[in-house]
# Entry
Amino acid sequence: MSEPPAARPTLEAVAAVAGVSRATVSRVVNGGAGVRSPLAERVRAAVEELGYVPNQAARTLVTRRNGAIAVVVAEPESRFFTDPFFAQQVRGISRELSAHDNQLLLLLTGGAADRERVGRYLTGGHVDGALIFSLHADDSLPALARKAGVPTVIGGRPTWPDPDARRRTLFVDCDNRGGAREAVRRLLAIGRRRVGHIAGPLDQPASVDRLDGFRDVAPEGAAAPVAEGDFTPEGGARAMEQLLERSPDLDGVFAASDVMASGALRVLRARGLRVPQDVAVVGFDDMVSVAEWTDPPLTTVRQDIEEMGRLMAQLLLRALELQDSPDGAAASPIITPTRLVVRASA
# Structure
């Protein structure tokens, strides 16, 4: 006959081993203040000895926290699981949340019905906060999060019409405009004079900022040739075809992502154009899984995608701490630097 399972250790058992009250144990395991360091160490040692695991439901009642953060990506599954950008950003988020004992809940939105579902979930009090990225201009997710009263950090510069809402929004972004300028300056420095741009979807602020940076430096300014892609290899290939149709004498291309640049390289090769001898190409992101494996390897503007994910999580956790501390200073948005990584394509 098998023995019955061992009873789960209780707060009372931890208190008895540590020689303290049940209330003291509760404060320590739930992160409360006011317990002297020697007592807290005795409680933690007893927790380790007994293998005590806090009851999450009871812990939530005490701390009013779920220990869970929603990561909301405003893209359908087909895009999320094929673009390495998202894997890098979520990896950075996951590592930071795990280091602070928080669970990550991934939510994807491919349309209005998905956004409404996510809004209901956020309103239901299942998570302590939300990290939202890959937003498009008409996206209602930030408004839904605000309505739900959920602390939120946005990946990317906010663009919604209400200036007060923009000022109050916490976000993490890179210097998209400055990085784009650096890309075009590289093309000009190696003697290119007819430079075109493969833009990302222009309902996303990163794409708009990179287009503005391109036009800041391109010799023809706003008249320089531009074709809009969609951050996919196929979209980059279509945009490259359009640029060549409009400007057959093109000798330089700045693509707003490495993934689109990979599609552009495929078209140039099919047209019999050598890279970089005939057409030099610069991408954006420095995703090693793409940039180092294209033919030739891609010169690109590096943004630290994983670090940006980590900073998003860090900023949200900081905002949650300050929410419980009326004397704390307000958290601030973060803009990270970019830098050019020169490889064989330019």
Q: What stands out?
A: The radius of gyration is 25 Å. The mean pLDDT is 88.
